[in-house]
Design goal:
This protein is of the alpha+beta class. It has nine helices and four strands; from the N terminus they run H-H-E-H-H-H-E-E-H-E-H-H-H. Strands 2-3-1-4 form a four-stranded antiparallel β-sheet.
Length: about 240
Amino acid sequence: MEETISLKELFDVIRKRIGLIVSITLAAVLVSGIISYFVLTPIYQASTQLLVNQKESKPTLYNGNEVQTNLQLVNTYSEIIKSPVILDKVKEELNLPISTAILTGKVTVGNANDTQILNVSVQDIDPDQAVIIANKTAEVFQRDIKSIMNVDNVTVLSKAAVGEKAAPIKPKPLLNIAIAMVVGLMAGVGLAFLFEYLDNTIKNEQDIESLLELPVLGSIANIEETKEKSRVKDKSVRGDSIGA
């Protein structure tokens, strides 16, 4: 015979194991908060923008082929910016005490919506250092691309700068705590149902009826409990008699 579980039974399991569920959820939130605020190192980001366009000495009409060529160059320039040709010089000119491989990991290059604008972003534990590296990378690239590709079509649109209240981009403690709360809640509920499934002990008449599929005709009370109740009743009767 197939067993069906009602919604009431599900809520009964949750209510029965509510202490376990709350404990696991609070533990997950606490661990996430401690790690986010006291263990993980804040990472800051600084960005600068470069425009890729062919400079002309004379004004010309709009040329679609030229724009398309510049868009294709954006992908090439993205790779050049992160290459040792550029970053080796950035590292040397700034006297950075890190390897070029580590510096490459700090630099991200991209462009939005297939535009001719390159975004050069740098992540570092020091916001001032991130700004310095981003601006130096743009400066070295704009200067050296002339000799690398024999073109002069890169313009710095905006330089990186440190805001008045620089905020780290990661970690995000509140987001981490929210995720930990959801994960802890799910884990707590899952363990509650797992423990309930593994618990095959018989605790009351309802468990017997469910297991044997037979009605309970009677039950035998615990002898010790019966004696204790009798003693309490006798004392109560004696007290009433004395008072009378």
